[in-house]
Amino acid sequence: MFKLILKFQDTVIKEYTFDKTPVTIGRREDNDVVIDNMAVSGHHAVIEEEAPNFFLLVDLESLNGTFVNDAKIAQAKVFDGDRFIIGKHILEFEDLRPVMDRPVREEFLDEDGQKPPAFRDTVILDTQAQQELLAKHAAERGISPEQMAERPKKVELHGFLTIFSGGTPQIIELSKRVTTLGKSRESDVKCSGLLVGKTAALINKRPNGYFLSYAEGLKKPDVNGDVVSTQVQLQDNDEITIGGTRMTFTLRPETS
Amino acid sequence: MLMIQHGLTGERIPGVMSLPKTVVGQINALRESRYCVSGMSESRGTNNPRWVVTRQTGRMEGSRVRVECWAKSDMGMQRTTNEDRFYVDPDQRLLLVLDGMGGHRAGEVAAELALETMSSFFKAHETQKEETTNIFENFDPSFTYYSNLLRQAAFVANRVVLHESVTRPEFGGMGCTVAGMALNDFTISMVNVGDSRMYLIRNGGMEQISRDHTLAEDQVERGIMSRQEARESQLRHILSAVIGVDTRIRVHMDELAVLAGDIVLLCTDGLTAVMEDEEILTEILKERPGPATLERLIDEVNGRGGPDNVTLLMMAFSEEPGQGEEPGNEEAVT
């Protein structure tokens, strides 16, 4: 099974997928791949199979010739990623068989005739090999380990709640990924009042900020006077009210 | 001796792992307490049928949000085995997607072993008890018990797969990825190891909520490549964390407050290697989410050549009918 992508000056004209051979290429209508251009012969080329598992591109003595990766050919074994030139058109060849079943160009085989690992397969490396590869990749891009160390650290903003429920205001840091607010004894922030749900609201710390969402109960949370029925991103100095409990949300840069 | 193949040079490197005694002890204990049982009745994907669909409806524990869940696994067009596995427990409290790797069916063994271990470990400790607190190696108090439990389950699965890999030559070098979620009280706990992904679809947008453990992603985090460059980089095929290869693993852990209307997708790289995020989103938003959504996605992937196994697990959250009429607490209006 293979795919041919017909291109003219970088524009994809058509894509073909074939699961059997021969596949004929030419100007006439009876070809499998029809290229309607005078630079293409009526029957220009054909793709055939050759044992054990090769695909073969054969030029049918066309007037302007057939090229594989810019080399003129009479016939040639073709491999995944090859580029054919037929007249002024380009055909890109993709081998759709599993990687293990595809042949490899002779020059890519190692001394024992073994296939190298294919890039498209997922591979696993041990930690040391990973670090070496990452450093090598960074070096290729002109970034030295010293430069890496000098990169400024991102300033992280931390969220806090100041809770006013009679008496001294209480400040808690929103260090948990999800902070629960409600009547339940398990809630991180206890909220009192008629119709306040066991879990009335949640504050979710996300990579891009803190989000307050309504959970359950007839009494929905209120942020700066607006009732929250779904979710809202909290801003510095937002006033939150749940039943009889009032809170202020603040964001501060990471400091001890 | 376990050998690992270097992804770029093809050179074979001796594996650096020797199992500490304590780890072996823990695995034996696990065996004796029959955590690694097989033949559980929960729905799961296997390699035999071309695909499996499960559909379940349940309520999220402690909440008024309805959960519907569908999963489907497909061998794809070019592989002859399916090394992906998925797991959905009957209450939808635990959901896993795994992608096995390793030759001669070892990938299937790794994925299955990790699935059995994680699900049974999680189930055994699901109800929080005093004596279960000592199962954790490093409990992170900024996360819920369930997130910590899920992460610990991944740690244990890592050792079980690694132990099998080093003691049985035919399974040498096997491993698997995992993307897992646990649902509890309006909160999704999630962990992932490797490049199987989790997405949140909310308000018409889609966001990746897992973290890829690939060298490409590492370079993005270190500021050496842009995210766009990483999509094309060969480094994206090299995993920096995987279950069953090293005694120490990175597990990404996060929590999400769930809203009615949310859709969550867990998938193996068979999907994401072929389709762009925007294309996946467009396909999901075409119709109301359901089993047909997964079929459309898999058809699309297979239509583009289906180079790998694809496994999809999708959850849709909706408001429980009657919500708002019932008071949310015992102090009801009289």
Task: Characterise the protein shown here.
The complex is a heterodimer of chains A (256) and B (334). With 256 residues, chain A is mainly beta. Chain A contains two helices and 23 strands. With 334 residues, chain B is α+β, with helices and mostly antiparallel strands. In chain B, the strands form three sheets. Chain B has a six-stranded antiparallel sheet with strand order 3-6-7-8-9-13, covered by helices on one side. In chain B, strand 8 and strand 9 form a beta hairpin. The interface between A and B is large, with 56 and 60 residues. Strand 12 of chain A pairs parallel with strand 12 of chain B.
Name the descriptors.
heterodimer; A: 256 residues; mainly beta; six-stranded antiparallel beta sheet; 2 helices; 23 strands; 8% helix; 42% strand; elongated; B: 334 residues; alpha+beta; 15 strands; 28% helix; 26% strand; disordered N terminus; disordered C terminus
